[in-house]
Amino acid sequence: DAKTTQPPSMDCAEGRAANLPCNHSTISGNEYVYWYRQIHSQGPQYIIHGLKNNETNEMASLIITEDRKSSTLILPHATLRDTAVYYCIVTRLNNAGNMLTFGGGTRLMVKP
Amino acid sequence: NAGVTQTPKFHILKIGQSMTLQCTQDMNHNYMYWYRQDPGMGLKLIYYSVGAGITDKGEVPNGYNVSRSTTEDFPLRLELAAPSQTSVYFCASSRGQSGNQPQHFGDGTRLSIL
Asked: Is there a contact between A91 and B99 if contact means CB atoms under 8 Å apart?
């Protein structure tokens, strides 16, 4: 399985862009990069995913390097409600479908 | 936009008792999952289902049972509750077997076994 490495914690000022890095140097060609977040003790919330190209949706942007060994999740204008643990996951496809293996994630603290 | 609905949200169970955690989804997803999350830890897969009538074990299935009689519902059964099963349980669903299909989660059931 492709393993991901994320910083354990980050701070961001409210209204500024939050850039959350993730290393996945052993990713395979058909594996996707997914980002989820977990606010306090709520269920994980899907944010965005990508394979090779950069992706953008209403929540965030995902920048994947050309060699696919790392990616960055960008929250363009962080708010206090974005304070959460963010998980970068490289999914493995097997009989269970798109397998998610949650690591430690990055605890993002958005400060006023 | 109901998505994945879990009941109950909280429950306290005595050692040795049994209970069923309910999960239903209204997105017509084929795949459904049960995870548990212990304090400060990531999620671990308990059981999953790829369609009605088909279930299989995940990483930590001991002490649990599941059934999938309909596409919408995927209940998780604890037969003889033990303190080690105190955890937060999350149900999730996804459309199908593709790397391009995200899982969508419910808000969880917080279960304490005393």
From this structure: yes
